[in-house]
Amino acid sequence: MHELSMAQGIINAVIETAESNNATEVNEVTIELGRLAMVNPEQLEFILGVLVENTILEDAKIVFEEIPVEIDCHDCNFHGKAIIDDKDHYAPMVKCPECDSFAIEILNGKDIVVKNIVIEKPDDD
Ligand SMILES: [Zn+2]
After folding, report:
1. I need a surface site. Which of 18, 54, 77, 103 has the fewest CB within 10 A?
2. How much is the pLDDT for 84?
3. Which residues are annotated as a binding site for Zn(2+)?
4. CA of 111 to the centre of ligand 1 (A)
């Protein structure tokens, strides 16, 4: 399952960061979710909830931020947010909002990134 390996990767990255910062607990994790990452957010959230058990981020609040898709259009040189036809979630069509061209380069929106984590340290109040 795609979401399972994604979730495991996210958790490993958070644990690594937390440990290298001597955290005793992770309070919050912000995850950027690209519109084209082909991940079902509810499913990812569910798997994360299972995988964090008995880890340093067991009680962490997990926040998802959706990233818009940014493109460069080869036909009209438009640069910015694309239109996404995602009626079919597994093969969304991305096109230029200016000229409807599909001759585009996708710059952003394909990744899942751990953007920020909030940790607790032993000397914190
Ligand atoms: Zn265009």
Report:
1. 54
2. 82
3. 73, 76, 96, 99
4. 23
The Cα-based distances of 4 to 46, 55, 68, 100, 124 in angstroms read 10, 16, 23, 35, 33
What CATH code is carried by the domain that includes residue 62?
A: 3.30.2320.80
pLDDT of residue 38: 79
Pick 93 or 62 by higher pLDDT. 62
Which residues are within 5 Å of ligand 1 (an ion), measured at CB? 73, 75-76, 78, 96, 98-99, 101
d(C-alpha 11, C-alpha 114), whole Å: 9
Binding site membership for Ni(2+): which residues? 2
pLDDT band at 74 (very low <50, low <70, confident <90, very high): very high
Range of the structural domain that residue 27 is part of: 2-120
Structure tokens of 96? Answer: 């230029």
Is 125 within the bounds of a domain? no
